[in-house]
Design brief:
Helix content: 25-40%
CATH superfamily of the domain at 264-419: DNA polymerase, Y-family, little finger domain
CATH architecture of the domain at 264-419: 2-Layer Sandwich
Number of helices: 15
Largest sheet: 5 strands, mixed
Radius of gyration: 24 Å
Structural class: alpha+beta
Strand order of the largest sheet: 5-6-1-7-10
Length: 424
DNA sequence: TCTGGGGTCCTTAGTCCA
DNA sequence: TCTGTGGACTAAGGACCC
């Protein structure tokens, strides 16, 4: 049976690519330090409370995977090399890889530093069929960056992403089996491919959703596809129910979006030891708010809604937010909002994580000045501090309230995790 | 076991207002 | 003037992704 799928290109060809770097952060570190080649390498999880950001295939053989607590990873493989992440370096490498993709088509949608969708329907008319372009991209990334990637090719974004899983190296007890590198789901075979997969293969089905679906007897994508849409909506809500039911039937009309505007900017940090006093947390909140404000200014954005996030020692997580009358990118405004929100919360049980976020973003030029606006003077001061930090590093200068009497500005040597704003 | 950081999107509930 | 309704907005939390 061949079912006509919506969202498939009119000529029935496979025009969407999903490119995914293999063990990206670990591979970049190994490239930098060739003596690590062949050894289990783990990026992240160097602090006492960290988790694994990426593991080389040699480390995965021991059962180490991303998002695993570092304590567990160390137990599984004590002789692995644990490295702190170097986000800015990965960003640079990612930018160069994305440039290789944009050489093929401008229709590239990065999903993260190591992953992107491409719409090659137009490009393949000039440059050749999509599977050949996929192989060409792999070869160029390997040649120019000495890094491997896997590419899925299909008639929709979602099918291409699933195809990538088939292209990837596979880890078993016997070691790593290298995948084909490119996997094509031919037009017309999508549902055969899709319906055998477990429902957790669908983008958006995590532990909570799969538990709910299991109650309906849904275990595979095929089970979900044969369910009436109303039943899925009933179990999962309108948006998720409808979306997942469509995906299960191979329907995915989402286009590749080239310039996705950010919806929020945030910084959060898990402390090496819990904080119990408002004074300590105020200093941390000011430092995080300052980092968020700096990123707003760098991005040319302003925010109306400021959110404070706390995770207590028992892992209970709360957020408190405030919406301002006017959008802002000023350190002074963000610090004030964060402190105000913090003042409403009892922190005595102990706080393990603090975060500051900005949402309701608008372009900076859209902001309206009022007659009594005193921000221009602060704008000038913040421009100067931004320049000082660009030149001498992020800890060269900061808001006075972020300075703790015992240590001055916080630095990564505190023993807290190192991926936060102080490390960039 | 003991659980990061930076995001996105959705749901629910309350309030305000036409 | 009172009541009902629905939309817009805000706040908080949850689920999910890499």
């Amino acid at each position: 049976m061949t079912t006509e799928l919506k969202g498939r290109p009119p000529d029935g060809s496979v025009g969407f690519l999903h490119v995914d770097m293999d063990a990206f952060y670990a591979a970049v570190e190994i490239r930098r330090r060739p003596e690590l080649r062949g050894r289990p390498v783990v990026v992240g999880g160097t602090g006492s409370r960290g988790v694994v950001a990426a593991a080389s295939y040699e480390a995965r053989v021991f059962g180490i995977g991303s998002a695993m607590p570092s304590t567990r990873a160390r137990r599984l493989c004590p002789h692995a090399v644990f490295l702190p992440g170097d986000h800015s370096h990965y960003s640079e490498v990612s930018e160069r890889v994305m440039a290789i993709l944009r050489d093929v088509t401008p229709l590239v949608e990065p999903l993260s530093l190591d992953e992107a969708f491409m719409d090659v329907r137009g490009a393949s008319r000039l440059l050749g069929p999509a599977p050949e372009l996929a192989a060409e991209i792999r070869a160029r990334v390997l040649e120019q960056e000495q890094l491997t990637c896997s590419v899925g090719v299909a008639s929709t974004k979602f099918m291409a992403k699933l195809a990538t899983e088939r292209a990837k190296p596979r880890v078993g007890p016997a070691g790593t089996v290298w995948g084909p590198g490119v996997h094509v789901v031919a037009a017309g075979t999508e549902l055969d491919f899709l319906h055998r997969l477990p429902v957790t293969a669908l983008f958006g089905v995590g532990p909570a959703t799969s538990r709910r679906l299991l109650r309906l007897g849904v275990e595979t994508v095929g089970d979900l596809a044969s369910l009436p849409e109303a039943a899925a909506v009933n179990a999962l809500g309108t948006a998720a129910g409808r979306q997942l039911h469509q995906l299960a039937n191979g329907v995915d009309e989402r286009p590749v979006v080239v310039n996705r505007a950010p919806r929020s900017i945030s910084h959060e940090e898990t402390f090496a030891r819990d904080r119990h006093t408002a004074a300590e947390l105020e200093a941390e909140a000011a430092r995080l708010a300052d980092a968020v404000a700096r990123r707003l200014r760098t991005s040319g954005l302003q925010s109306r809604t400021i959110t404070l996030k706390l995770r207590f020692a028992d892992f209970r997580t709360i957020t408190r937010s405030v919406t301002l009358a006017d959008p802002t990118d000023g350190t002074r405004d963000l610090v004030a909002a964060a402190r105000e929100l913090l003042a409403q919360i009892d922190v005595s049980p102990g706080v393990r994580l603090l975060g500051v976020g900005a949402s309701g973003l608008v372009e900076a030029s859209a902001r309206q000045l009022s007659f009594d606006d005193e921000t221009p003077a602060y704008d000038a001061a913040e421009q100067v501090t931004d320049e000082i930090r660009n030149r001498f590093g992020p800890s060269a200068i900061g808001p006075a309230v972020a300075i703790r009497s015992d240590r001055g500005l916080r630095s990564p040597s505190d023993g807290d995790q190192r991926w936060g704003p102080a490390a960039d």
